[in-house]
C-alpha cells in the first residue's frame, strides 16, 4: 500500500514537472514568435478572426499605433512598456493561441529553432529519466538475462551446424571423387568412340569422293548432249524466225492494203452520211409542217367529234324515250286485254251459277 502511494505521489510529481517544462517550452515559443506578430499584424488578424483570442489583436494594434505616434520622441514611454508587458503576459497565460498560429513558427530563425529543439530534447530526456523506476530496471536486467541465454543457445546451434557442415563436406568430397572416376571412365569411352567415328567418317569420305567422280563424269556426258541439243534448237529457232519475219512482212502489207480500203470506205461513208443528214433535215422540216397541219386537223376533229357525240346522245335519248313509250303502251294494252278476258270469264261463271240456281228452284216447286 505504501509503495502504491509512493508511486502515485511520484507520478504526480513527475507529471507536474513535465507540465511545467511543457508550459515553459510553449511560453518560450510564443515569446520567440511575438516579434514576428508585431511585424505582421495583418497575418495575426487573419489567423485570430472568429476565435477566442481576438483581444490580443486589439492589444497589439493599440501598442503599434501608440509606438508609431511616439516614435519621434527619444524618451521611453512607461505606458508603452506596460502595454508590452501586458501583451507578453496575455500570451504567456494563453499560450494555447499557438494552435491558431502554428505556421508562424516556420518563420523563426535557425537559432530560435535550435533553442526550441534543445528545450524539447531536454523535455524528452527529463521525461525518460523521471519515469524510470526500480521495476523497469529489473525488467531490463531480466530481458538481458533472457537475451544471454538465447545467445548461448544460438552458439550451441552454430557449433552443431558446423559439425554437420563438416560431415557434409566429407561426404561431398567422397561424392566428388566418385564423380571424377565416373567422368574419367566416360572420357575413355568417348575417346574410343571418337576414334571409331573418325574411321567411319574417313570411309564415308572415300565413298563420297568415288560417287562424286562418277557423278561428274555422267554430268560431263549429259552436258555434251545438252550442248548438241542446244545448237540444234538454235538452228531451228533461226529458221522459224526467218519464216516468221516473212509472214510478218506479208501480214504488214495486207494490213496496209486493208487500211487504205478502210480509209476509202470511211471517206465514202462520210459523204453518204452528209447527204443523208441533209435529207433527214428536209424530212424533219416536212414532218414539222405535216405535224402542225395534223394538230390543226385534230383540233377541228375534236370539235366535230364533240358535236357528233352531242347529236348522238340526243338521238339516243329520243329513241330511248320512244322505246319506253312503246313498251308502256304495249304493257297497258296487254293489261287491258288480260282484264277483259278475266272479266268475261267471271261473267260466264256467274251466269252458269245463276242458271243452276234457277233449275233447282223449279224442281222443288213440283
TrEMBL record:
Chief subcellular location: cytoplasm
Keywords, ordered alphabetically: Cell projection, Cilium, Coiled coil, Cytoplasm, Cytoskeleton, Flagellum
Top-rank taxon: Eukaryota
InterPro entries named among the record's database cross-references: DRC10
Name listed for the protein in its UniProt record: Dynein regulatory complex protein 10
Entry's localization field: Cytoplasm, Cytoskeleton, Flagellum axoneme
Stated family: Belongs to the DRC10 family.
Region feature Disordered, mapped onto this chain: 347-366
Role: Component of the nexin-dynein regulatory complex (N-DRC), a key regulator of ciliary/flagellar motility which maintains the alignment and integrity of the distal axoneme and regulates microtubule sliding in motile axonemes.
Species name: Musca domestica (House fly)
Coiled-coil stretches noted in the UniProt entry, renumbered to this chain: 280-325
KW Cytoplasm (keyword) present: yes
